[in-house]
Amino acid sequence: MKKLFSIIFVTLLLLSQAFSLPRFSLRSGQKCIDCHINPTGGEMRSYGGWVYGKNTLSMYTSDGKLSPKIGDNISFGFDYRTQYLTKSTDSTTQSDFQKMEGTIYFNVGLSDQVDVYARYDFLFSIWEAYGVLNILPNNSYVKVGTFSPNYGIRLDDHTAYTRGGDLGILFTTGSRQGLIYDPRYTETGLEVGYNLGKIANITASVGNPRSREFVADPTYTTRLEINPIIANKVSLLLGGSYAFYKEQRLNPSNGKTGNADIQFYGGFAGIGFGDMTLMAEYDIGKNNIVTGSSTGSLMLEGSYRLMKGFEAVARYDMFDKDIDTPGNELKRLILGFEFYPYSFIEIIPQYRIQWEIPEVKNNSFVMQFHFYY
User: Which domains does the chain have, with CATH numbers?
Assistant: First the structure.
């Protein structure tokens, strides 16, 4: 039991990586690139995103001459997170402080059209590095290097089942609960993003994870997003994603190795009006050669800004490890708040209610502390 609890700690400390919050985009009507260096959102903040975090997001702002810039064309940033977690099981209650993330970012503008970006998490040795060439029409781009592919809604909590899930710790089989897009997952390759007017964007990428280089075909990922604004008051988010790759796997039924066609596809939607945002995503993971089974992942999130710097957030997650077999779903409800008392400081208390079959007592309370720049 102690070993299992330690593994759960390690999984939970990966939650809330430094990705952008899509509800901020829905609430403001802005695009991800308006606040982040990465054209698909998340991680290092651009100067506009840095100002948003300093002045608009927090309850009280910092004074003084602050800046993320080192010279005219070089900028930096960081995210540091730690958390306190307490968890009760049928036999014990345990709690501890845990490290979560220690990431530094650098961006160098080689010209008005070319940026070179790098991030490194020195706690877990996670890194990305790529160049962004803004050379296509309509402020579209080409990205080359090592990056996280653009799939679904980029939640900041990667224990959501539409992201990395619980990384295989809750089932005795060790199978994954969620899609592959946890904080550790990156691909080396090329991505093209094209803006279809002002309300739509499509991205397509081809790449290979470091864990599968030269042993499998590349992964192909595409995503379409439509985000119109109605009557200058209501922001909408609609879209879908698809990913495909081949992987060699052992078939347990006959002991033979064969190529498995792995597919992920799904849709997402969101609406933002006033201080309220609602988002949803559903994805199917399909392996139609080796196992013949399909998994389903669902996320529903609602948030409400109670006052400047203080928000209430609730999320429902569901993972179905075989959608053709009833009664094997894993479900949970997450209730919490996000508090930004001062510039570059975030505090997140959460209570997580878990359901699975057979029933296990494993609810938890999390208090996260986030310092960013």
Answer: 2-372 (2.40.160.10)
